[in-house]
Amino acid sequence: MSDLLITGASPLGGATTDLLVRDGVIAALGPDAATDARADVERLAADGLVLLPGLVDLHTHLREPGREDAETVRTGSAAAAAGGFTAVLAMANTSPVTDTAEAAERVLDLGVAAGHCDVQPIGSVTKSLEGAELAELGLMHRSRARVHVFSDDGRCVHDARVMRRALEYVRAFDGVISQHSQDPALAGPSACCHEGELSGRLGLTGWPAVAESSIIARDAELALHTGSRVHVAHVSTAEGVEAVRWAKRRGARVTAEVTPHHLVLTTDLLSGYDPVYKVNPPLRPAEDVEALRAALADGTIDAVATDHAPHARHDKEHAFPDAAFGMLGLETAFSVVHDVMVTSGRIDLATLAERMSHAPARIAGLADHGRAIEVGAPANLVLVDTSARVTVDPSASQSLSRNTPFAGHTLTGSVRTTILRGRVTATDGEVIN
Ligand SMILES: NC(=O)N[C@@H](CC(=O)O)C(=O)O
Ligand SMILES: [Zn+2]
Ligand SMILES: [Zn+2]
């Protein structure tokens, strides 16, 4: 593998510099970086571009095995690379579920074979996501896949006794349970939107905010009781944010993520019954969106995670109550977050890097990702153009699915080039293999 020399880039938006990568690792940084380069060095001119650590997604649905018509590990990880990600955590709600060491190793191997980014499997908490018997947590952790994060995402681990046992179990290896915080008893099987004035008018059953906040509070108590780590997936309400804030104040080992879509889209979009806006947890009112932005800025919410949830047309294009839940997220995440949080002045680029790279890598225990940009660190990087205006075009997506809610949105900030261990994996939305 030849050396890679990146010239004129601005790390985290600071002073420009050159950067030399050798054998997948940052070998030199600074105005003299080029002097050490070998003759066959590959050059990448990055004038005007910002260099960030490669993005890390704590919450991606890749659909393989089972629903390869919606996404595969290959297509989903290609979308990730196009979106600036160098690592994604693959959710366990596939068919069959990732609830054994073999299943986790298979997802890992599919990711390596695709080569677009690191694919780290998440194991389920319970067998077949049934909420009753614990899955093979220890075996998954000790397998080649080194599973660290466990989740029944798509469903809430609602039985407190099961959640307690899972937390006790993963404490031995400092594992973490990522919880889809939603009390099924407070929502019911037909819920499909935010419970409020609009759901009544639309004649749809809603989830109340308390279905989210009450599970977060309960899990914080269990985290304190067991000394284990809980990660709150896709927090979506102001009440949920308050529960996370309270949990952290009490010293519970609780972290939280927010999706890009919950940072910008609101429940009133549902008035046209377009299923592209159907997602779980649902889009919420503007007050909740504002609370999520504030919490992401002040660190109550640790990370952005996409909850990339591809669905085939024949599952999504139905009457609203019958359509599948979920939205694409990997290719638009950076632009959405940059536009709503950085362009608006609410956070700086270093904080964006913290929320989209450093923190998710730390939470997931990924040692090679989310590192500071310094000599000796693996060259997992992304170059972004912070002033480019991009209009989202679903037909250009690397995903097999097309269910993006951002079609036609114009956003400031775009991903230019993604670099995995010194190798360019994507440029301007196209993957390179
Ligand atoms: N987010 C969604 O609306 N759907 C997810 C499941 C989930 O994240 O709960 C999916 O698997 O499609
Ligand atoms: Zn979920
Ligand atoms: Zn999910």
From TrEMBL:
GO terms for biological process: 'de novo' UMP biosynthetic process; purine nucleobase catabolic process. Zn(2+) 1 binds at H59, H61, D153, D307. Keywords: Hydrolase, Metal-binding, Pyrimidine biosynthesis, Zinc. CDD domains: DHOase_IIa. Residues 49-239 form the Dihydroorotase catalytic domain. Substrate binds at H61, L62, R63, N93, N280, H311, F325, G326. Signal peptide: none annotated. It is an enzyme of class 3 (hydrolase). The keyword Metal-binding applies. Its cofactor is Zn(2+). Zn(2+) 2 binds at D153, H180, H234. The keyword Hydrolase applies. Pfam families: DHOase (PF12890). Binds 2 Zn(2+) ions per subunit. Its EC number is 3.5.2.3. GO terms for cellular component: cytoplasm. GO terms for molecular function: allantoinase activity; dihydroorotase activity; zinc ion binding. PROSITE patterns: DIHYDROOROTASE_2. InterPro entries: DHOase, DHOase/Allantoinase_Hydrolase, DHOase_cat, Dihydroorotase_CS, Metal-dep_hydrolase_composite, Metal_Hydrolase. Pathway: Pyrimidine metabolism; UMP biosynthesis via de novo pathway; (S)-dihydroorotate from bicarbonate: step 3/3. It catalyses: (S)-dihydroorotate + H2O = N-carbamoyl-L-aspartate + H(+). The active site is at D307. Catalyzes the reversible cyclization of carbamoyl aspartate to dihydroorotate. Belongs to the metallo-dependent hydrolases superfamily. DHOase family. Class I DHOase subfamily. This is Dihydroorotase.
